[in-house]
Fold Inositol 2-dehydrogenase.
Amino acid sequence: MSYGIGILGAGVMGSDHARILASQVAGAHLVAVFDPDRARAEASAGANGARRVHARGIDLIDDPEVEAVLIASPDATHAEFVLACLARGKPVLCEKPLAASAAECLQLIEAETKLGRRLIQVGFMRRFDPFYGDLRAGLEQGGLGPVLLAHCVHRVATVPGYFQADMSITNAAVHEFDILRWLLGQEIAAVQVMRSRRKSTATLRDPLMIVLETDQGVVADVEAYMSAAYGYDIRTEVVCEEGTAELARPQPAAFRRNGSVAAAYPADWRGRFADAYRLQLQGWVNGVRSGVPAGASAWDGYLATIIADAALKSLNEGGRVAIPAATRPALYR
Ligand SMILES: NC(=O)c1ccc[n+]([C@@H]2O[C@H](COP(=O)([O-])OP(=O)(O)OC[C@H]3O[C@@H](n4cnc5c(N)ncnc54)[C@H](O)[C@@H]3O)[C@@H](O)[C@H]2O)c1
Ligand SMILES: O[C@H]1[C@H](O)[C@@H](O)[C@H](O)[C@@H](O)[C@H]1O
Protein backbone atom coordinates (compact mmCIF):
# COMPACT_ATOMS: atom_id res chain seq x y z
CA MET A 1 0.00 0.00 0.00
CA SER A 2 1.29 3.46 -0.87
CA TYR A 3 0.81 6.24 1.68
CA GLY A 4 -0.93 9.48 0.62
CA ILE A 5 1.05 12.65 1.42
CA GLY A 6 -0.09 16.28 1.36
CA ILE A 7 2.39 19.17 1.19
CA LEU A 8 1.76 22.63 2.65
CA GLY A 9 3.87 25.23 0.85
CA ALA A 10 5.17 24.97 -2.71
CA GLY A 11 8.15 27.34 -2.55
CA VAL A 12 11.81 26.34 -2.73
CA MET A 13 11.57 23.53 -0.18
CA GLY A 14 7.95 22.40 -0.70
CA SER A 15 8.47 21.92 -4.43
CA ASP A 16 11.81 20.17 -3.85
CA HIS A 17 10.26 17.80 -1.30
CA ALA A 18 7.41 17.11 -3.75
CA ARG A 19 9.89 16.28 -6.53
CA ILE A 20 11.92 13.98 -4.26
CA LEU A 21 8.79 12.28 -2.91
CA ALA A 22 7.45 11.63 -6.40
CA SER A 23 10.71 10.44 -7.94
CA GLN A 24 12.94 8.95 -5.23
CA VAL A 25 10.86 7.70 -2.29
CA ALA A 26 9.22 4.28 -2.04
CA GLY A 27 5.93 3.55 -0.28
CA ALA A 28 4.30 6.98 -0.59
CA HIS A 29 2.86 9.30 -3.21
CA LEU A 30 1.85 12.94 -3.39
CA VAL A 31 -1.93 13.45 -3.12
CA ALA A 32 -2.41 17.18 -2.65
CA VAL A 33 -0.65 20.53 -2.38
CA PHE A 34 -1.65 23.86 -0.83
CA ASP A 35 0.05 27.21 -1.30
CA PRO A 36 -1.67 30.62 -1.19
CA ASP A 37 0.16 31.21 -4.46
CA ARG A 38 -2.12 28.91 -6.45
CA ALA A 39 0.03 28.93 -9.58
CA ARG A 40 2.96 27.56 -7.55
CA ALA A 41 0.76 24.90 -5.97
CA GLU A 42 -0.56 23.86 -9.37
CA ALA A 43 2.91 23.72 -10.90
CA SER A 44 4.22 21.52 -8.08
CA ALA A 45 1.11 19.30 -8.04
CA GLY A 46 1.14 18.94 -11.84
CA ALA A 47 4.85 18.09 -12.02
CA ASN A 48 4.65 15.49 -9.27
CA GLY A 49 1.41 13.62 -9.93
CA ALA A 50 -0.74 15.11 -7.13
CA ARG A 51 -4.49 14.71 -7.60
CA ARG A 52 -5.52 18.12 -6.32
CA VAL A 53 -4.68 21.56 -5.12
CA HIS A 54 -6.58 22.81 -2.07
CA ALA A 55 -7.88 26.32 -1.45
CA ARG A 56 -6.89 26.30 2.25
CA GLY A 57 -4.24 24.55 4.31
CA ILE A 58 -6.84 23.12 6.65
CA ASP A 59 -8.70 21.53 3.69
CA LEU A 60 -5.53 19.66 2.77
CA ILE A 61 -5.11 18.41 6.34
CA ASP A 62 -8.78 17.30 6.32
CA ASP A 63 -8.46 15.54 2.95
CA PRO A 64 -9.25 11.86 3.69
CA GLU A 65 -6.69 10.69 1.11
CA VAL A 66 -3.95 12.70 2.85
CA GLU A 67 -2.64 10.26 5.46
CA ALA A 68 0.42 12.30 6.44
CA VAL A 69 1.41 15.94 6.00
CA LEU A 70 4.70 17.65 5.13
CA ILE A 71 4.91 21.30 6.21
CA ALA A 72 7.17 23.53 4.09
CA SER A 73 5.44 26.87 4.64
CA PRO A 74 7.04 29.89 6.39
CA ASP A 75 8.30 29.40 9.96
CA ALA A 76 5.48 31.42 11.56
CA THR A 77 2.79 29.08 10.11
CA HIS A 78 4.27 25.80 11.41
CA ALA A 79 2.70 25.58 14.87
CA GLU A 80 -0.90 26.03 13.75
CA PHE A 81 -0.55 23.41 11.00
CA VAL A 82 1.19 20.90 13.29
CA LEU A 83 -1.58 21.31 15.91
CA ALA A 84 -4.25 20.69 13.25
CA CYS A 85 -2.43 17.51 12.15
CA LEU A 86 -2.20 16.28 15.75
CA ALA A 87 -5.91 16.98 16.30
CA ARG A 88 -6.67 14.66 13.34
CA GLY A 89 -4.09 12.02 14.36
CA LYS A 90 -2.05 12.58 11.18
CA PRO A 91 1.75 12.17 11.19
CA VAL A 92 3.61 15.31 10.21
CA LEU A 93 7.10 16.14 8.94
CA CYS A 94 7.55 19.79 9.80
CA GLU A 95 10.40 21.81 8.31
CA LYS A 96 12.66 23.45 10.88
CA PRO A 97 12.17 25.39 13.04
CA LEU A 98 9.34 23.41 14.65
CA ALA A 99 7.66 26.68 15.64
CA ALA A 100 8.42 30.36 15.88
CA SER A 101 8.67 30.42 19.70
CA ALA A 102 9.52 28.12 22.58
CA ALA A 103 5.98 28.61 23.96
CA GLU A 104 4.49 27.29 20.72
CA CYS A 105 6.89 24.33 20.72
CA LEU A 106 5.74 23.49 24.26
CA GLN A 107 2.11 23.65 23.16
CA LEU A 108 2.89 21.06 20.46
CA ILE A 109 4.76 18.86 22.91
CA GLU A 110 1.82 19.03 25.31
CA ALA A 111 -0.63 18.05 22.54
CA GLU A 112 1.58 15.17 21.36
CA THR A 113 2.19 13.96 24.90
CA LYS A 114 -1.57 13.93 25.51
CA LEU A 115 -2.01 11.76 22.42
CA GLY A 116 0.64 9.43 23.88
CA ARG A 117 2.32 8.68 20.53
CA ARG A 118 4.88 10.46 18.41
CA LEU A 119 3.42 11.98 15.28
CA ILE A 120 5.85 14.88 14.81
CA GLN A 121 9.19 14.70 13.00
CA VAL A 122 11.20 17.92 12.60
CA GLY A 123 13.11 18.52 9.34
CA PHE A 124 16.62 18.57 10.80
CA MET A 125 17.75 16.64 7.74
CA ARG A 126 21.46 16.67 8.61
CA ARG A 127 20.74 13.73 10.92
CA PHE A 128 20.21 11.71 7.70
CA ASP A 129 23.26 13.07 5.85
CA PRO A 130 25.74 10.21 5.21
CA PHE A 131 28.72 12.47 5.96
CA TYR A 132 27.37 13.51 9.38
CA GLY A 133 26.45 9.83 9.93
CA ASP A 134 30.09 8.80 9.34
CA LEU A 135 31.34 11.53 11.66
CA ARG A 136 29.05 10.43 14.48
CA ALA A 137 29.86 6.74 13.96
CA GLY A 138 33.59 7.56 14.08
CA LEU A 139 33.21 9.51 17.30
CA GLU A 140 31.14 6.72 18.87
CA GLN A 141 33.72 4.08 17.91
CA GLY A 142 36.17 5.73 20.27
CA GLY A 143 39.93 5.91 19.77
CA LEU A 144 40.00 9.72 19.63
CA GLY A 145 39.50 10.14 23.34
CA PRO A 146 37.01 12.46 25.02
CA VAL A 147 35.77 15.48 23.05
CA LEU A 148 37.22 18.87 23.99
CA LEU A 149 36.02 21.34 21.34
CA ALA A 150 33.96 21.60 18.17
CA HIS A 151 34.14 24.12 15.32
CA CYS A 152 31.19 24.69 12.99
CA VAL A 153 31.00 26.90 9.92
CA HIS A 154 27.61 27.81 8.43
CA ARG A 155 28.07 29.97 5.33
CA VAL A 156 25.26 30.81 2.96
CA ALA A 157 25.94 32.60 -0.35
CA THR A 158 22.94 34.94 -0.13
CA VAL A 159 19.62 34.85 1.72
CA PRO A 160 16.12 35.13 0.26
CA GLY A 161 14.19 38.41 0.49
CA TYR A 162 12.04 37.29 3.44
CA PHE A 163 15.10 36.63 5.63
CA GLN A 164 15.23 38.86 8.72
CA ALA A 165 18.15 39.56 11.05
CA ASP A 166 17.10 37.12 13.82
CA MET A 167 16.83 34.31 11.28
CA SER A 168 20.64 33.91 11.18
CA ILE A 169 20.03 32.26 14.53
CA THR A 170 16.40 31.01 14.50
CA ASN A 171 16.44 29.69 10.94
CA ALA A 172 20.09 28.92 10.08
CA ALA A 173 22.19 28.34 13.23
CA VAL A 174 19.46 26.07 14.66
CA HIS A 175 20.87 23.36 12.35
CA GLU A 176 24.18 23.63 14.19
CA PHE A 177 22.51 23.55 17.61
CA ASP A 178 20.64 20.38 16.66
CA ILE A 179 23.55 18.60 14.98
CA LEU A 180 25.93 19.36 17.87
CA ARG A 181 23.48 17.80 20.35
CA TRP A 182 23.10 14.79 18.03
CA LEU A 183 26.83 14.38 17.30
CA LEU A 184 28.08 14.80 20.84
CA GLY A 185 25.14 13.29 22.74
CA GLN A 186 25.34 16.30 25.09
CA GLU A 187 22.98 19.14 25.93
CA ILE A 188 23.77 22.81 25.42
CA ALA A 189 24.06 24.57 28.78
CA ALA A 190 25.06 28.13 27.83
CA VAL A 191 25.53 30.38 24.84
CA GLN A 192 27.23 33.65 24.03
CA VAL A 193 27.07 35.51 20.74
CA MET A 194 30.09 37.59 19.75
CA ARG A 195 29.59 40.32 17.19
CA SER A 196 32.42 40.73 14.75
CA ARG A 197 32.80 43.89 12.73
CA ARG A 198 29.75 43.95 10.52
CA LYS A 199 30.32 43.13 6.85
CA SER A 200 30.22 46.48 5.07
CA THR A 201 27.59 45.41 2.50
CA ALA A 202 25.47 43.36 4.90
CA THR A 203 21.87 44.31 5.58
CA LEU A 204 21.77 41.63 8.30
CA ARG A 205 23.88 41.56 11.47
CA ASP A 206 26.42 39.46 9.61
CA PRO A 207 28.57 37.51 10.39
CA LEU A 208 28.02 36.20 13.92
CA MET A 209 30.21 34.04 16.11
CA ILE A 210 28.20 31.89 18.50
CA VAL A 211 29.97 30.14 21.37
CA LEU A 212 28.17 27.22 23.01
CA GLU A 213 29.01 25.29 26.17
CA THR A 214 27.68 21.80 26.75
CA ASP A 215 26.59 20.24 30.02
CA GLN A 216 29.79 18.13 29.91
CA GLY A 217 32.15 21.06 29.51
CA VAL A 218 32.73 20.96 25.73
CA VAL A 219 32.99 24.35 24.00
CA ALA A 220 31.80 24.75 20.41
CA ASP A 221 31.98 27.77 18.14
CA VAL A 222 29.58 28.38 15.26
CA GLU A 223 30.30 30.92 12.54
CA ALA A 224 26.98 32.01 11.03
CA TYR A 225 27.68 34.00 7.88
CA MET A 226 24.62 34.62 5.73
CA SER A 227 26.20 36.66 2.93
CA ALA A 228 29.33 34.64 2.24
CA ALA A 229 28.89 35.24 -1.50
CA TYR A 230 31.08 32.42 -2.86
CA GLY A 231 28.72 29.51 -2.18
CA TYR A 232 27.09 27.30 0.45
CA ASP A 233 29.75 25.97 2.80
CA ILE A 234 29.07 23.82 5.85
CA ARG A 235 31.94 22.49 7.99
CA THR A 236 32.33 20.71 11.28
CA GLU A 237 35.44 19.60 13.13
CA VAL A 238 35.51 17.92 16.51
CA VAL A 239 38.70 18.15 18.57
CA CYS A 240 39.35 15.31 21.00
CA GLU A 241 42.10 14.43 23.47
CA GLU A 242 43.86 12.01 21.07
CA GLY A 243 42.96 13.39 17.63
CA THR A 244 40.31 15.19 15.61
CA ALA A 245 37.33 14.22 13.44
CA GLU A 246 36.30 16.37 10.50
CA LEU A 247 33.11 16.27 8.47
CA ALA A 248 33.84 15.03 4.95
CA ARG A 249 32.08 16.79 2.10
CA PRO A 250 30.87 15.68 -1.31
CA GLN A 251 33.78 16.15 -3.72
CA PRO A 252 32.83 18.03 -6.86
CA ALA A 253 34.97 17.71 -10.00
CA ALA A 254 38.28 19.59 -9.73
CA PHE A 255 39.70 21.68 -12.54
CA ARG A 256 43.46 22.33 -12.69
CA ARG A 257 44.68 25.15 -14.84
CA ASN A 258 47.44 27.75 -14.84
CA GLY A 259 48.97 26.53 -11.61
CA SER A 260 45.71 26.49 -9.65
CA VAL A 261 42.90 24.10 -8.84
CA ALA A 262 39.19 24.99 -8.72
CA ALA A 263 36.14 23.03 -7.59
CA ALA A 264 32.54 24.30 -7.58
CA TYR A 265 30.64 24.91 -4.34
CA PRO A 266 26.90 24.16 -4.27
CA ALA A 267 24.82 27.34 -4.61
CA ASP A 268 22.62 26.34 -1.67
CA TRP A 269 21.53 23.55 0.65
CA ARG A 270 19.57 21.62 -1.99
CA GLY A 271 22.79 20.54 -3.69
CA ARG A 272 24.85 19.92 -0.58
CA PHE A 273 22.15 18.01 1.29
CA ALA A 274 20.39 16.26 -1.61
CA ASP A 275 21.05 12.80 -0.10
CA ALA A 276 19.98 13.98 3.34
CA TYR A 277 16.61 15.31 2.08
CA ARG A 278 15.95 12.04 0.20
CA LEU A 279 16.94 9.83 3.13
CA GLN A 280 14.97 12.01 5.53
CA LEU A 281 11.80 11.65 3.45
CA GLN A 282 12.28 7.90 3.07
CA GLY A 283 12.97 7.60 6.80
CA TRP A 284 9.82 9.58 7.59
CA VAL A 285 7.66 7.45 5.28
CA ASN A 286 9.14 4.25 6.73
CA GLY A 287 8.50 5.56 10.24
CA VAL A 288 4.91 6.52 9.44
CA ARG A 289 4.27 3.08 7.94
CA SER A 290 5.93 1.10 10.74
CA GLY A 291 4.87 3.35 13.62
CA VAL A 292 8.54 3.66 14.70
CA PRO A 293 9.45 7.34 14.40
CA ALA A 294 12.77 8.43 12.91
CA GLY A 295 14.71 11.69 12.96
CA ALA A 296 14.38 14.71 15.21
CA SER A 297 11.41 14.75 17.58
CA ALA A 298 9.30 17.67 18.80
CA TRP A 299 11.52 17.65 21.89
CA ASP A 300 14.60 18.16 19.69
CA GLY A 301 12.74 20.96 17.89
CA TYR A 302 11.93 22.60 21.23
CA LEU A 303 15.53 22.40 22.48
CA ALA A 304 16.87 23.95 19.24
CA THR A 305 14.43 26.81 19.72
CA ILE A 306 15.30 27.48 23.36
CA ILE A 307 19.00 27.57 22.44
CA ALA A 308 18.11 30.02 19.65
CA ASP A 309 16.14 32.19 22.09
CA ALA A 310 19.11 32.28 24.49
CA ALA A 311 21.45 33.15 21.61
CA LEU A 312 19.17 36.03 20.57
CA LYS A 313 19.14 37.28 24.16
CA SER A 314 22.93 37.24 24.18
CA LEU A 315 23.07 39.00 20.79
CA ASN A 316 20.68 41.73 21.91
CA GLU A 317 21.77 42.19 25.53
CA GLY A 318 25.33 40.89 25.48
CA GLY A 319 26.98 38.35 27.76
CA ARG A 320 26.70 34.64 28.38
CA VAL A 321 23.19 33.23 28.74
CA ALA A 322 22.70 30.00 30.70
CA ILE A 323 20.15 27.48 29.44
CA PRO A 324 18.47 25.66 32.30
CA ALA A 325 18.38 21.84 32.00
CA ALA A 326 14.96 20.67 30.83
CA THR A 327 13.28 17.42 31.87
CA ARG A 328 12.59 15.26 28.83
CA PRO A 329 9.05 13.84 28.89
CA ALA A 330 8.85 10.02 28.81
CA LEU A 331 7.44 10.04 25.25
CA TYR A 332 10.80 11.31 23.96
CA ARG A 333 13.15 9.03 25.92
N1 LIG B 1 15.77 21.90 6.12
C1 LIG B 1 16.34 22.80 5.35
O1 LIG B 1 17.51 22.69 5.01
C2 LIG B 1 15.54 23.97 4.88
C3 LIG B 1 16.00 24.73 3.80
C4 LIG B 1 15.28 25.87 3.44
C5 LIG B 1 14.11 26.19 4.10
N2 LIG B 1 13.69 25.40 5.13
C6 LIG B 1 12.43 25.69 5.81
O2 LIG B 1 11.36 25.39 4.90
C7 LIG B 1 10.30 26.32 5.07
C8 LIG B 1 9.99 26.96 3.72
O3 LIG B 1 11.14 27.63 3.26
P1 LIG B 1 11.35 27.95 1.69
O4 LIG B 1 12.79 28.26 1.54
O5 LIG B 1 10.73 26.89 0.85
O6 LIG B 1 10.52 29.29 1.56
P2 LIG B 1 9.77 29.84 0.26
O7 LIG B 1 9.45 31.27 0.54
O8 LIG B 1 10.54 29.51 -0.96
O9 LIG B 1 8.42 29.00 0.24
C9 LIG B 1 7.41 29.14 1.19
C10 LIG B 1 6.09 28.92 0.48
O10 LIG B 1 5.06 28.89 1.45
C11 LIG B 1 3.95 29.61 0.92
N3 LIG B 1 3.09 30.03 2.02
C12 LIG B 1 2.98 31.25 2.61
N4 LIG B 1 2.04 31.21 3.59
C13 LIG B 1 1.57 29.93 3.60
C14 LIG B 1 0.58 29.27 4.37
N5 LIG B 1 -0.10 29.90 5.35
N6 LIG B 1 0.32 27.98 4.10
C15 LIG B 1 1.00 27.31 3.14
N7 LIG B 1 1.95 27.89 2.37
C16 LIG B 1 2.23 29.19 2.61
C17 LIG B 1 4.55 30.73 0.10
O11 LIG B 1 3.61 31.21 -0.86
C18 LIG B 1 5.74 30.02 -0.54
O12 LIG B 1 5.42 29.45 -1.78
C19 LIG B 1 10.76 27.31 6.14
O13 LIG B 1 10.20 26.92 7.38
C20 LIG B 1 12.27 27.15 6.19
O14 LIG B 1 12.83 27.37 7.45
C21 LIG B 1 14.38 24.31 5.51
O1 LIG C 1 16.48 27.83 5.72
C1 LIG C 1 17.79 27.53 5.30
C2 LIG C 1 18.07 26.05 5.47
O2 LIG C 1 17.61 25.59 6.66
C3 LIG C 1 19.51 25.65 5.21
O3 LIG C 1 19.72 24.30 5.48
C4 LIG C 1 20.43 26.51 6.04
O4 LIG C 1 21.75 26.14 5.84
C5 LIG C 1 20.20 27.97 5.74
O5 LIG C 1 21.08 28.73 6.46
C6 LIG C 1 18.77 28.35 6.09
O6 LIG C 1 18.56 29.70 5.82
About this structure: The pocket of nicotinamide-adenine-dinucleotide (ligand 1) is lined by residues 8-14, 34-37, 40, 57, 72-75, 77, 95-96, 123, 125, 162, 171, 269 (CB under 6 Å). The chain has a mean pLDDT of 97.
